[in-house]
Design a protein that fits this description.
Shape of chain A: rod-shaped
Number of strands of chain B: 0
Radius of gyration of chain A: 52 Å
Oligomer: heterodimer
Shape of chain B: elongated
Distance between the termini of chain A: 137 Å
Order of helices and strands of chain B: HHHHHHHHH
Strand order of the largest sheet of chain A: 1-2-3
Number of helices of chain A: 12
C-alpha cells in the first residue's frame, strides 16, 4: 500500500471502522512512514476534540417542560372533536356512500317504472275497479286486423266503453267474493271477425282487378260487409284462473232497448 | 483470582449484553402499557430516552430552542408510531432514526425560510454550568474547541452529519448507523470517512489561522 491509499483509509483506521486485515496493513505502513503517522495523530486529535463536543447539561426543568408539552399535545389530539350530524354526512366517505345509495334508488325506481308502465298502458281504466285489473292478455288477434277507422272506435271517450265499465263495476260489486273483473274491452264478435276476413278477400280481389270497374254485386257485398256490427265483449275472470266468463252483447240491441 | 485482559473484555461484553437485554425488556413492558393508553408509561419512556434525544437534536441543530422543539416533535412521533415498534429490534436505534428524520425536517424547514443550515447559537451559560469545576483556562480552551467542532459539523452535508454524530458522538457501530440511516454499511463508512477528513481539515485551518494571528 502506498501513502495515497493509506491517506484514504486513515479516517476509518483511527476510528476502528475498517476490517482487521486492512487495519494491520495500515498499522504496518504507519510504523515505517512518518508523514502518514503524523496525519494519523492529527485525526486522533480531531476525534478526541469531537468527544469533547458534549451537549450542555440541560436542567430538569427543560426535560419536564418538553414532557409536559408532549403530553398536552397528545391529550389535545386524542380528544375527539364534536361534530354535528350534518357535518358527519359531509365527510367524503359518507357523502360518497349517500350518493351511491341515491343512485341505486333512482336506478331501481327507473327500472320498476319502466317495467310497470307497459302493463298499465295495456289496461283500460275502469273507474274504481281499475286497481284490481289483472295483467294484460295477449292482444286479441281479431283486433289486429281491424281497419284504422274501426279501431278509432276504441277511443277513451267512447260511450260504449263507459257503459262497459259500469257493467264491470256492477258485476264486481254484485258478487265480489267469487269473481272479479278481469278485463273489459270493446271488441268484435266472432261473426264480425269472419266478416273482416271476407272484407280482406274482397279487397284483394278489387286490387287485382284495378283496371276493371267493380261489378254491382261486389259493390253491394262491400257495402253490406263494411258496416260491421258493434258488439260488447266483457270477460270476467273468476278466482279460479281456469274459468273465465266471456260475455258478448249486441250494442245495437242495447241501444234499441234503451230507446 | 487473576483476570486476563481477554476475560475482562468477555465479562464486560456479557454485562453489556445482559444490561441491554434487561433494558430492552423494560422498554417493551413500557411500550405495551403505553399502547394500552397508560400515559404514565409513555412518560417513563420519555424520561428513559430524553437525554439521548435532546443531545442528538442539539448536536444536529446546534442550538437549544431548536433542539427542544425537535425533541418534542421526536416524542410526538414516537407516540404516534409506537405501534410500529418491533420489540425484537433495539429501541434506541428506532428512536435515533426518528430523531434523524425530525432533524432533517427541521433543517429543510430552516433552509426554506432562508435561515442558515446550522445555526450555532450555543448557549454559553449552559457550558459554564457543565464545567464549573474546571479552571478558567481549560474552560476557555474547551469552549473554543467545542465551537470549532460545532462549526465543522455545521459545514457538513446532512447525511454525513447524521452519520458522524451517530458514530462518533453517540458511539454506535457503523453497521448500526447504516441500519438507522437506511443505507449500506459501505456508504455509511464512506460518509464517516469524508466527515472526519473535513472536520480535520477544518480544525487544521482554524488552528493554523489562529497561530498565524498570534505570531503577528
Amino acid at each position: 500500500m502506498n501513502c495515497k491509499n493509506i491517506q484514504l483509509l486513515l479516517p476509518l483506521y483511527v476510528g476502528g471502522d475498517i476490517e482487521e486485515n486492512q487495519s494491520d496493513r495500515v498499522a504496518g505502513h504507519l510504523r515505517s512512514c512518518g508523514s502518514c503517522s503524523l496525519s494519523a495523530d492529527e485525526y486522533r486529535e480531531a476525534i478526541e476534540m469531537m468527544q469533547q463536543f458534549t451537549p450542555p447539561l440541560f436542567s430538569e426543568a427543560v426535560y419536564s417542560g418538553i414532557r409536559r408539552r408532549v403530553l398536552l399535545e397528545i391529550e389535545h389530539n386524542s380528544v375527539p372533536v364534536k361534530t354535528s350530524l350534518f357535518e358527519r354526512f359531509l365527510r367524503p366517505r359518507y357523502a360518497s356512500a349517500i350518493a351511491a345509495l341515491l343512485l341505486l334508488v333512482v336506478g331501481i325506481s327507473a327500472i320498476y317504472f319502466n317495467a310497470t308502465r307497459s302493463d298499465d298502458a295495456s289496461h283500460i281504466a275502469t273507474g274504481p275497479a281499475a286497481n284490481k285489473i289483472a295483467p294484460a292478455e295477449q292482444p286479441n288477434p281479431a283486433l289486429i286486423n281491424v281497419p284504422k277507422s274501426t279501431r278509432d272506435d276504441v277511443a277513451p271517450e267512447d260511450p260504449v266503453r263507459d257503459h262497459l265499465a259500469t257493467i264491470s263495476q256492477k258485476v264486481k260489486f254484485s258478487n265480489p267474493a267469487k269473481m272479479r273483473v278481469f278485463r273489459s274491452q270493446l271488441s268484435r264478435s266472432p261473426v264480425a271477425d269472419a266478416d273482416r276476413t271476407e272484407i280482406a278477400a274482397v279487397k284483394t280481389h278489387a286490387l287485382a282487378n284495378v283496371d276493371a270497374s267493380p261489378s254491382p254485386q261486389t259493390t253491394a257485398a262491400l257495402a253490406s260487409i263494411e258496416k260491421p256490427e258493434k258488439t260488447l265483449r266483457m270477460e270476467i275472470q273468476t278466482k279460479d284462473p281456469n274459468i273465465r266468463i266471456i260475455w258478448f252483447a249486441s250494442l245495437q240491441a242495447k241501444q234499441t232497448r234503451e230507446k | 483470582m487473576i483476570l486476563t485482559g481477554n476475560m475482562t473484555l468477555a465479562i464486560g461484553i456479557q454485562l453489556q449484553i445482559g444490561e441491554r437485554s434487561q433494558n430492552q425488556a423494560f422498554v417493551t413492558d413500557l411500550v405495551e402499557c403505553a399502547l394500552d393508553g397508560d400515559r404514565a408509561a409513555f412518560e417513563q419512556i420519555m424520561i428513559y430516552s430524553q437525554q439521548r434525544v435532546l443531545a442528538m437534536t442539539w448536536r444536529m441543530l446546534g442550538n437549544e430552542p431548536d433542539a427542544r422543539d425537535a425533541a418534542q416533535e421526536v416524542f410526538l412521533r414516537i407516540f404516534k408510531y409506537l405501534k410500529r415498534l418491533d420489540p425484537k429490534k433495539d429501541f434506541f436505534a428506532w428512536v435515533y432514526s426518528i430523531t434523524v428524520n425530525v432533524c432533517r425536517d427541521f433543517a429543510n424547514r430552516r433552509q426554506k425560510h432562508g435561515g442558515k443550515m446550522f445555526s450555532l447559537d450555543y448557549d454559553d451559560s449552559a457550558f459554564e454550568l457543565a464545567s464549573d469545576a474546571e479552571s478558567a483556562d481549560e474552560n476557555l480552551v474547551r469552549d473554543e474547541q467545542r465551537k470549532m467542532i460545532g462549526r465543522a459539523i455545521a459545514s457538513l452535508p446532512e447525511r454525513e452529519k447524521a452519520a458522524i454524530v451517530l458514530r462518533d458522538f453517540e458511539g454506535l457501530p457503523s453497521d448500526e448507523v447504516a441500519a438507522i440511516l437506511g443505507s449500506s454499511p459501505t456508504t455509511v463508512r464512506s460518509q464517516i470517512s469524508s466527515a472526519r477528513r473535513k472536520i480535520k481539515i477544518y480544525c487544521d485551518r482554524r488552528t493554523e489561522r489562529k497561530t498565524g494571528e498570534e505570531n503577528r
